[in-house]
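Lab meeting, item 3. Inverse folding demo.
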C-alpha cells in the first residue's frame, strides 16, 4: 500500500435513501446515538451495544432474520447445535450479497461469488449428520481477497483485467487450511487493483474488474486499501469473516476506516504461497471480523508453517490465540503511547478519542508510558519503497511463471504493456508509475537492494526492539485512522494519519479494534507488539473491546449533512 496525501473531494449522492442522522464525536464508551434507515433490509433491535456481551448477537435473531449481525462465535454455536445448517447460512449470505453488494447500496465489495458454495455447504451438512462438525470453522462463510488463489471455479485476478480468466490450479496454502477447518469459501472480495501497488495516485478500493468499493457507513467515502472489499464485506454483514492481505496498512487501514477488527500477523506465520505478491519482506494475510474473538478464531486456522514459503516462521508455542473472557484485568501490562507517526497530533477529534482510549486502558489497570517515539524517517520510508519495488518485480514474475503465464503474461513489463494497450478501461482514472518504477529496478542480487533492506526493515526492527527494551513495554498503541475521506478518482487518496508503517516495516503484529466515531465514521485503535506477540495483543485488545463496546453496524448513509 502506498500512502498518498492528496486533498480533493467529490460527492456521489445515492438517490432513494431517506436518512435521519445526528453528527458528533464518540469514542471508547462515550454515549452516542444515531438514527438511520437499515438499507440492507434487516431490522435492528433498540438496545445499545453497551449491554451486549461478546458472544451475543448484535441484533435480535429470529430464525435467519438478522443472521448477518451474529458474531462468529454465536454463529458457530448455532451451527454446532444443529439450529442452523451450513446451507441455511451460505444461502443467507449469498442472498445478502445479491441485495446489498450488487443492488441496494451497491457496495462493490464482492468481486465474484463461489458457484460451488451451496454444494460445499451441502457436503458439510452431510458430514455433520454423520460425525459432527468438520473443524473449528464448520459451515462458516469466509470471503477471500481477490489476490488469494482458490483452485476452484473462481478467478484470481488482483482486480486487474490483465488476469481476466485466470484460474489458479491449486488452492493457496491458507485456502486449503480454511477448507480443512470446515469453512465455506463464499466469494472473492474486491480490492485496490494490484493491492494498491500500481500508482501513487490510485483511489483505494478501485479495480478495473470490480469498480469502486464503497464505505458502508457513508457511501461516498472511501473504504481504504487495499483490502477494502474484505473489510466492507464484514462491516456490511456480507460475511462473518474475511481474509485480507497487507504490505503496509492494507489490513489495518480498511479495518479502521470500516470500523471492524483486523489482525496483521507477524510476517511469515501465515503462508504467502498462492498469494499474488508485492514484498516477501512485508507481505502477510490476516483475518477480519466484527469481534476480536472472531478474528482470533480465523487467525488460529490461518497460522501454519509452510516449508514452501521461503520466509515462513514457525510460531514458537502451540497456537492458542483465543482470548480468555475472564482475563480483563490489565494490571501489570505496560502500554506505550506511540507519538511518532504520520499525522500524529494533527487531528483534534481523533486525539479526543485516543485520549479516551488511554483512560479506558488505565481504568483496566494498565500502566501507561507516554510518549514513546520510534520515528519512521523519510529515509526509512524511501528505503521501504525501494525494497517493495525490487521485490515486486521479482515476485510477480515468479507468480506468473508458477501459473503457466496466464494470458501470456510473464513479466511486469508484460503487465505494463497490457495496461498501455487497454488504457481506456484500466487507466481511466490513474496510471501505473509504480509499475514502471518497479520494472526499472535491478534484480535482488543488486547491492542497492541489500542497502535498501538494511535501511528499512533491519534498521527499523532494531529501533523497535530498543524502544521496547528501554521502556519495558508489552504493547504499543496508536490511532489507526481519521474518518474516511471522500472518494476521489481524479486526485486519489487523501490520507491524514497513518501509523501502520511501524508494524509493517518491522514485520511485527498489529491488532486494530473500533474505538469511536466522528460524524458517523469509525476510528480504530492499534495494539502493536514484538514478533509472535499475537496472544498478548489479542488479550489486551479483547479487554479493551469488552470495556468499550465501540462497534456498531453501518448506516449506509449516502453522504453527510455537514459536507
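The presenter then showed the designed sequence:
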Amino acid at each position: 500500500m502506498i500512502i498518498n496525501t492528496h486533498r480533493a473531494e467529490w460527492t456521489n449522492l445515492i438517490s432513494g435513501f431517506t436518512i435521519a442522522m445526528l453528527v458528533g464525536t464518540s469514542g471508547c464508551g462515550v454515549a452516542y446515538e444515531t438514527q438511520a434507515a437499515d438499507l440492507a433490509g434487516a431490522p435492528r433491535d433498540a438496545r445499545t451495544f453497551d449491554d451486549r456481551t461478546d458472544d451475543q448477537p448484535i441484533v435480535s435473531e429470529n430464525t435467519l432474520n438478522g443472521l448477518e449481525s451474529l458474531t462468529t462465535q454465536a454463529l458457530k454455536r448455532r451451527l454446532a447445535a444443529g439450529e442452523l445448517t451450513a446451507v441455511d447460512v451460505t444461502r443467507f449470505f449469498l442472498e445478502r450479497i445479491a441485495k446489498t453488494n450488487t443492488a441496494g447500496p451497491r457496495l462493490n465489495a464482492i468481486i465474484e461469488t463461489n458457484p460451488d458454495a451451496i454444494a460445499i455447504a451441502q457436503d458439510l451438512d452431510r458430514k455433520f449428520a454423520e460425525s459432527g462438525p468438520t473443524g473449528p470453522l464448520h459451515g462458516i462463510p469466509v470471503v477471500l481477497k481477490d489476490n488469494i488463489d482458490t483452485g476452484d471455479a473462481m478467478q484470481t485476478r488482483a482486480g486487474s483485467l490483465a488476469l481476466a480468466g485466470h484460474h489458479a490450479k491449486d488452492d493457496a496454502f491458507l485456502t486449503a487450511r480454511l477448507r480443512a477447518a470446515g469453512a465455506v469459501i463464499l466469494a472473492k472480495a474486491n480490492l485496490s487493483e494490484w493491492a494498491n501497488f500500481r500508482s501513487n495516485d490510485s483511489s483505494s478500493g478501485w479495480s478495473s474488474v470490480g469498480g469502486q468499493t464503497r464505505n458502508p457507513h457513508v457511501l461516498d467515502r472511501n473504504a481504504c486499501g487495499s483490502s477494502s472489499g474484505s473489510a466492507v464485506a464484514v462491516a456490511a454483514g456480507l460475511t462473518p469473516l474475511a481474509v485480507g492481505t497487507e504490505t503496509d496498512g492494507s489490513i489495518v487501514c480498511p479495518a479502521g476506516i470500516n470500523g471492524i477488527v483486523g489482525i496483521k500477523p507477524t510476517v511469515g506465520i501465515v503462508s504467502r504461497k498462492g498469494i499474488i505478491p508485492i514484498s516477501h519482506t512485508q507481505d502477510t494475510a490476516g483475518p477480519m471480523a466484527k469481534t476480536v474473538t472472531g478474528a482470533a478464531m480465523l487467525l488460529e486456522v490461518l497460522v501454519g508453517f509452510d516449508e514452501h514459503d521461503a520466509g515462513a516462521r514457525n510460531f514458537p508455542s502451540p497456537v492458542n490465540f483465543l482470548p480468555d473472557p475472564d482475563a480483563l484485568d490489565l494490571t501489570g501490562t505496560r502500554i506505550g503511547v506511540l507519538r511518532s507517526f504520520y499525522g500524529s497530533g494533527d487531528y483534534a477529534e481523533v486525539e479526543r478519542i485516543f485520549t479516551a482510549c488511554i483512560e479506558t486502558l488505565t481504568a483496566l489497570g494498565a500502566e501507561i508510558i507516554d510518549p514513546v517515539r520510534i520515528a519512521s524517517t523519510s529515509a526509512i520510508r524511501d528505503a521501504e519503497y525501494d525494497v517493495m519495488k525490487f521485490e515486486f518485480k521479482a515476485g510477480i514474475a515468479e507468480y506468473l511463471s508458477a501459473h503457466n503465464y496466464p494470458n501470456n503474461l510473464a513479466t511486469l513489463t508484460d503487465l505494463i504493456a497490457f495496461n498501455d494497450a487497454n488504457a481506456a478501461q484500466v487507466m481511466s482514472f490513474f496510471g501505473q508509475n509504480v509499475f514502471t518504477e518497479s520494472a526499472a529496478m535491478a534484480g535482488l542480487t543488486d547491492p542497492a537492494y541489500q542497502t535498501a533492506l538494511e535501511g528499512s526493515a533491519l534498521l527499523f526492527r532494531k529501533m523497535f526492539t530498543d524502544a521496547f527494551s528501554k521502556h519495558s513495554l508489552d504493547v504499543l498503541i496508536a490511532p489507526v485512522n481519521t474518518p474516511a475521506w471522500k472518494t476521489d478518482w481524479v486526485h486519489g487518496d487523501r490520507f491524514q494519519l497513518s501509523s501502520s508503517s511501524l508494524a509493517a516495516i518491522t514485520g511485527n503484529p498489529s491488532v486494530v479494534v473500533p474505538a469511536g466515531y466522528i460524524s458517523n465514521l469509525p476510528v480504530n485503535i492499534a495494539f502493536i507488539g514484538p514478533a509472535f506477540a499475537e496472544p498478548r495483543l489479542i488479550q489486551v485488545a479483547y479487554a479493551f473491546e469488552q470495556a468499550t463496546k465501540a462497534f456498531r453496524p453501518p448506516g449506509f448513509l449516502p453522504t453527510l449533512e455537514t459536507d
